[in-house]
Design a protein that fits this description.
CATH topology of chain B: Porin
Order of helices and strands of chain A: EHEHEHEHEH
Strand content of chain A: 15-25%
Structural class of chain B: mainly beta
Largest sheet of chain A: 5 strands, parallel
Number of helices of chain B: 1
Distance between the termini of chain A: 36 Å
Helix content of chain B: under 10%
Structural class of chain A: alpha/beta
Radius of gyration of chain A: 14 Å
Distance between the termini of chain B: 21 Å
Number of helices of chain A: 5
Largest interface: A-B, 17 and 20 residues
Low-confidence stretches of chain A: none
Number of domains of chain B: 1
Helix content of chain A: 25-40%
CATH topology of chain A: Rossmann fold
Mean pLDDT of chain A: 87
Radius of gyration of chain B: 22 Å
CATH class of chain A: Alpha Beta
Shape of chain B: globular
Number of strands of chain A: 5
Oligomer: heterodimer
Chain lengths: ~130, ~400
């Protein structure tokens, strides 16, 4: 029998109750989840082992280091990283370089659990060269 | 010993306020009157062996409206219980309750639900939308001495609502209970419950810890009183949408923000019930103040509920049951106002011939929700014929 490694998600959200709820939901879906309530902590963990993570789910409005700066730094470290950006404010994915658009999905808050599950599944099941369905 | 009773019925029904679920964003649920036919059947019974007992209750009903075909459907309810004596003083009790309904609160609308551990049963529902529910429990009971008994148990429950706008629920309970019989007619008890609600289709959950002391007394053969009082520690998490100050909204281009909440609170829990029986009648008063998983719009909420019911059997061929209920939900964490529900009804059966009855049901329900603007003021009336080769009047089923 071949052991199948669980996909690991790095979850970054400064609102603690939401962080816990999303973590619980993603764990229920079968993912291994590492949580951070600060961008700095998330970045430290990520830079220590960028290959450990299959996906990052990050809030854009982080107080210590804005989510877009965090994600830019992560993508500089690992260019094929897949990312779900969450924010209550609009975010135009078209502003990203075209090469990155295929590996980034934006979720406008408030979103329901199913929307997050679909976004995660979309990013993890499509290859980098194949654009995720919108 | 074996005993099963069944009934079959066909009735005409009129409901002045059928309320399907509406899409979010609409301020008022749209109610419509419906009239149609219902056909139903039921079975109740039990069988006992030397060391075990099995009991079952089933009620099923199919409903077809003439002018509201979208609300056609069936209500089904099944309750099964199996008790097994494992050793001389040790027994196990397994219970299953499951059902589905298209009518808000289903058949249970006619009967006051006073058991506060019936967390999956649909009460205080806002809409006439398909709701499926299941509650399974297992309890181990140990009679340590003739006076002292201890029980441990747990239950799992789920509620699934067809409307995607309403939250579903998966939950479980772990509990223990110690009861001590002071005298032949008096018992004191202490209980602890851990309850978890995990809501589906939305980011929300709750953990409850409930500790309570109880007292029960049978004043005489005809008077029973029981009460429980204690405290609940609640921890609820979820999301709220809040309006943004118009000046800021103009700058950032959005009117509403979503914020998460984590609320911890200590609340009182109270349950009391008084029953009085006469030869041909019985009345029951009950009050409870506890926490419930809500109705899909209201999630974890503090609930205050009072019920009164009166049953009379025996004026020649007539049997009557009257019930009234008041319920109030206050969400723990959600930025919603109170939900208030008043309902009352009467159910009468009149024996036309041997095993053939004329049935009349009347129910009125009025609810309001602060902030949301949902309200319902509806009357449901049904009249029909029933067949039941049983001595128990249908009004008491």
């Amino acid at each position: 029998m071949v052991a199948v490694a669980r996909k690991k998600i790095l979850l970054v959200e400064d609102e603690l109750p939401l962080l816990q709820l999303v973590e619980k939901y993603l764990r229920r879906l079968g993912f291994d989840v590492e949580t951070h309530s600060t961008s700095a902590g998330a970045l430290r963990s990520f830079e220590a082992g960028p290959a450990d993570y299959d996906l990052v789910v990050a809030d854009l409005g982080m107080p210590d280091l804005p989510g877009d700066t965090l994600l830019t730094r992560m993508l500089e470290t690992r260019a094929d990283l897949r990312v779900v950006i969450c924010s209550g404010s609009p975010f135009f994915i078209e502003k990203l370089p075209e090469a990155l658009r295929r590996q980034v999905v934006f979720l406008q808050k408030p979103f329901v659990p199913k929307m997050l599950a679909e976004a995660v599944e979309r990013l993890l099941t499509h290859s980098k060269n194949e654009p995720p369905a919108v | 010993m074996i005993g099963f009773r069944f009934y079959g019925e066909i009735t005409g029904v009129y409901d002045s306020g059928l309320t399907p679920a509406v899409a979010s964003g609409q301020s008022n649920a749209v109610s419509a009157a419906g009239k149609g036919l219902e056909a139903g059947a039921g079975l109740i019974g039990s069988r006992a062996w030397r060391h075990s007992k099995f009991s079952v209750e089933y009620k099923g009903k199919y409903r077809q409206y003439i002018n509201s075909p979208l609300l056609n459907g069936s209500d089904q309810f099944l309750a099964i219980e199996y008790k097994q004596l494992l050793q001389r003083h040790l027994s196990v009790d397994l219970k299953e309750n499951l059902g589905t309904s298209t009518l808000a609160n289903g058949e249970l609308a006619y009967f006051p639900v006073t058991g506060t551990n019936a967390l999956a049963l649909p009460t205080n529902e806002l809409f006439d939308v398909r709701t499926d529910y299941l509650q399974s429990s297992v309890d181990l009971l140990w009679d340590a001495t003739p006076q002292l008994s201890v029980s441990f148990g747990g239950q799992g429950f789920l509620v699934r609502r067809e409307s995607l706008a309403l939250a579903d629920l998966i939950g479980y309970t772990a509990r223990s209970d110690v009861a001590y019989r002071l005298t032949r007619h008096q018992t004191i008890s202490a209980s602890y419950n851990y309850v978890a609600f995990n809501f589906q289709r939305t980011f929300a959950d709750a953990n409850l810890q409930i500790a309570a002391l109880g007292y029960a007394i049978a004043f005489s053969r005809d008077w029973d009183f029981s009460a429980q009082a204690g405290a609940i520690r609640t921890e609820t998490r979820g999301l709220n949408q809040i309006a943004i100050d118009p000046a800021i909204a103009a700058i950032i281009g959005q009117n509403i923000a979503t914020v998460s909440f984590l609320r911890k609170a200590y609340l009182p829990v109270v349950e009391a019930r008084l029953t009085r029986r006469w030869n041909r009648s019985q009345y029951m008063l009950a009050y409870s103040r506890t926490v419930t998983p809500g109705n899909g719009v209201y999630l974890t909420s503090r609930q205050s509920m009072g019920t009164i019911s009166y049953a009379y059997m025996g004026y020649r061929r007539l049997a009557v049951r009257l019930n009234g209920e008041y319920a109030e939900l206050s969400p723990l964490g959600q930025a919603l106002g109170k939900y208030t529900n008043w309902q009352g009804g009467v159910r009468m059966t009149y024996t036309l011939a041997r095993d053939v009855f004329l049935e009349l049901d009347y129910e009125h329900r009025y609810y309001t929700t602060q902030d949301l603007g949902y309200r319902r003021d509806s009357t449901r009336l049904s009249l029909g014929l029933a067949f039941s080769p049983s001595e128990t009047p249908l009004a008491f089923w």
